[in-house]
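Figure 3 (text version): structure tokens given as input.
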């Protein structure tokens, strides 16, 4: 658990699903997270019974603190990327400065995840070797970033 501005959030895959969904709302990159995020936010039974569909604009109002971060995604991105073995997000800063939007991140270290959340408003997914983590990697992105040395040893 980590205190982020006015709320406390855990650094687990459920938080990664929700924060990735919110950070990618109104884009096709929210789709891999949509069903599980809505189930987590509103309860699986409520979503199934109501046939709820995504209403992206209200999503931003759920956790506005996630969007008041030091290093937000660019408003009009030129390209997309994923950030594997992300650490605290060094590659992400560089890619965002070039106009890129991060659509997926993964980092197993809990302390690095907390820093990543504070800087970017999203919890990276955990262990990239697990199928439950891999299932959320989008099929469509422009650049894959992977931080040294982890990718060499994974």
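Below: residues designed for each position.
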């Amino acid at each position: 658990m980590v205190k982020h501005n006015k709320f406390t959030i855990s650094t687990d895959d459920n938080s990664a699903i929700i924060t990735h969904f919110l950070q990618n709302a109104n884009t096709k990159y929210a789709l891999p997270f949509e069903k599980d995020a809505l189930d987590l936010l509103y309860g699986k039974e409520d979503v199934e019974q109501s046939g709820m569909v995504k209403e992206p604009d209200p999503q931003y109002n759920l956790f506005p603190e996630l969007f008041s971060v030091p290093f937000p995604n660019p408003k009009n991105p030129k390209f997309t990327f994923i950030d594997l073995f992300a650490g605290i997000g060094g590659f992400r800063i560089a890619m965002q400065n070039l106009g890129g939007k991060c659509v997926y991140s993964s980092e197993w270290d809990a302390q690095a995840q907390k820093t990543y959340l504070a800087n970017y408003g999203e919890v990276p997914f955990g262990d990239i070797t697990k199928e439950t983590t891999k299932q959320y990697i989008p099929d469509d992105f422009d650049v894959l970033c992977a931080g040294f040395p982890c990718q060499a040893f994974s």
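The chain has one domain: 2-153.
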